[in-house]
Amino acid sequence: MRVLLVHPSTLMYSEIFLRLEPLGLERVAAALLADGHDVRLIDLQVYRKADLERQLAQFQPEAVGFSLNYLANVPEVVDLAKRVKVILPGCTVFVGGHSVSFVAEPVLAHAGGAIDVVLKGEGETGAPALLAALPDRALNEVPGAVTQDGPGRPPRMLHSLDDPLPARHLGGRRRKYFIGVMDPAASVEFTRGCPWDCSFCSAWTFYGRSYRRLSPDAAVEDMARIAEPGVFIVDDVAFIKAEDGDEIARQLERRHIRKQYYLETRCDVLLRNEEVFRRWKRLGLNYMFLGLEALDEEGLTAFRKRTTPAVNNKALEVARSIGLSVAINIIADPDWDETRFEFVRQWAMSVPEIVNITVQTPYPGTETWLTEARRLTTRDYRLFDVQHAVLPTRLPLHRFYEELVNTQAVLARKHLGMAALAKTSGIVARQLLHGQTNFAKMIWKFNTVYNADRQHSEHLEEARYLLPAQAERPTVPVPAQRKELFVHVPLRRSG
Ligand code: B12
Ligand code: SF4
What we know:
Elements: E1 2-7, H1 12-16, E2 18-19, H2 23-34, E3 38-43, H3 49-59, E4 63-67, H4 74-87, E5 92-96, H5 104-111, E6 117-119, H6 123-133, E7 145-147, E8 150-151, E9 178-179, E10 185-188, E11 191-193, H7 203-206, E12 211-213, H8 216-224, E13 230-233, H9 242-254, E14 260-265, H10 267-272, H11 274-283, E15 285-293, H12 297-302, H13 309-322, E16 325-332, H14 338-350, E17 354-359, H15 367-371, H16 397-416, H17 418-433, H18 438-449, H19 452-458, H20 478-485
Helix pairs in contact: 2-6, 8-9, 9-11, 14-16, 16-17, 16-19
Bound molecules: cobalamin and iron/sulfur cluster.
């Protein structure tokens, strides 16, 4: 069958710091190729809508699958699905990915028939089963399928992550993918899922709190296929098990594979497995993202981070001693006032790390979606990107954005200002010589993207599709509700 897979365009954050290949969609593509389908993939982060229309006209796909990992992309994908049905009325349109797995029914309703099926959970199992079921229209037999008739069978987890490895060759324009100075950069997955259960996060509810890994052989095989000099390791929490990180490192050393790496992990994991991170530093690990989220005990407890300020501070010291460039994330509560922003600015300027600020956002699929007692001030999907305030702000909304943008600008100048630029000018010059302009462009774009007027005015735009309303405050205790959050149901109780 002719299948076209589509990744939607970027959100605000990606306009600046990074743009990454659609790894999940590439894995879905690989599973479909293995089943003998004729598959094409277009990523609207690096292609235009006109290119998609051209593909539809020339390739005449019998099925079109959209990736919907981000809630903020819902309106775009619903509109694109409607457009596909106008151009190719007989084509089956399906949608899968992280966020849509939590809002399948409302998205089907928004599409008004333009989306035939939403596939919840992992696409490597769902998509091939869907295409196999199409001739008999037995859609409700497909694991994870939800149609306008309602949900069918529960989604099925992939037996082994070793197969299929992502079909990276399908996308094109790979030089457009980058993260900061790692330009160009590819992405790789070593593990999937997270055993922790932070209240603001849906990584654990999606994968049923499971944690699986590729075998080191398969992980290194995938690495060997990557041509780019930079590699973003997409794991939720890298190197939770020291022995896995060690074995991959050993094989990479043996095969003389050297890259620059970026990864994300937890402070307690860094402290526990310090030696693995040191070994990876020798292999080319330069950048690390640590989700601190809050500076005080109270905040960490509220987010159920299961860590302490002392552990976090110790982890920052260790990362510095290894010589890693560290980016940390702090979650701004819409309740913050000028004093609180000022406190965070002062703290952020006092540490050498890159500090990133996101806005506390209750997402469907997270525990805060159920328990957040404050009412949403907007249900416009596009504003659910952790850069907008969707809960009531203590400050007037425009003032909140002024404080947020000012804080982000102060923090960005620390790393993107003239002094920092002088430090990176060698890198930029080298990249420009090789025709890589992503990082250089990013340095100049900051003020147009992070802008209080722009952020505020986005609240005033008319929303054609609205996120379902939250329940009227929690009525049952959280443990009972937690079960309903899962996309893939946990196989056993995790500690
Ligand atoms: C890597 C990553 C990124 C990368 C993006 C990579 C990319 N190009 O997609 C970067 C760093 C850029 C990023 C940015 C952001 N991210 Co992010 N990210 C992740 C992370 C850690 C892993 C995603 C991943 O690559 N997984 C590995 C691949 C193999 O899996 P996958 O993409 O999920 O695909 C599988 C399924 O989803 C499904 N699937 C996917 N597409 C399709 C399509 C079809 C047709 C089918 C059938 C199935 C299917 O099958 C795939 C294979 O099993 C997830 C957490 C998580 N565990 O999912 C958060 C996560 C998705 N991100 C999140 C957020 C909030 C963001 C930001 C908004 C954060 C910010 N600070 O601004 C930005 C927005 C980015 C944007 N769209 O422009 C949230 C999503 C929130 C939401 N509900 O919308 C998550 C869940 C993290 C969290 N803590 O809750 N992110
Ligand atoms: S925030 Fe990180 S540690 Fe917490 S549940 Fe999500 S992925 Fe796991």
